[in-house]
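Weekly modeling sync, notes
Attendees: S.R. (lead), two postdocs, one rotation student

Agenda item 3: backlog of single-chain predictions. S.R. asked that every request posted to the team notebook include the full sequence so nobody has to chase files. The rotation student volunteered to paste the first one in as an example of the format we agreed on. Action items at the bottom.

Example entry:
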Amino acid sequence: MKRYICALAVCLCAALLCSCGGNAPSESSSAEAVTSSEYDIDLTQMSSTMIYSTVSNMMLYPDTYMGENIKMQGQFAVYHDKSADKYYFSVIIPDATACCTQGIEFVLDGDYSYPEDYPAEGETITVSGQFNTYDEYGFKYCQLIHAKML
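Predicted structure, as returned to the notebook:
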């Protein structure tokens, strides 16, 4: 009887481990995250675990999400690159336990000036825009272009 239970436990563990693996998500899997007709992916309608997982997937497999219209909510953050005198604005999203964060940069459409036209750092904001990537300083970055603060 002990052997049977042990074998069953091993099989169950193996099945669970195999279910976590796999290839990059297909383009149709991003469509499964659609929760609003106005956006391809509306992160504001998902659980905190699903939000963090989706944003992590965006970072790992950005080509899958290229051109998707995304809506997200999180804390506003700003970074100033002094050498280039350029500001980068992002939405920071914590995971369910708030121990880890992911952020996506956004670029507002229109003529905006920092700090006058932006919220205070750490303030909760909702942003929508089109998912895009760009290369800078030898690294690939994700961003929402044509973005709007809602």
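Discussion: group reviewed the output briefly. The mean pLDDT is 80.
Action items: rotation student to repeat for the remaining queue; S.R. to check formatting next week.
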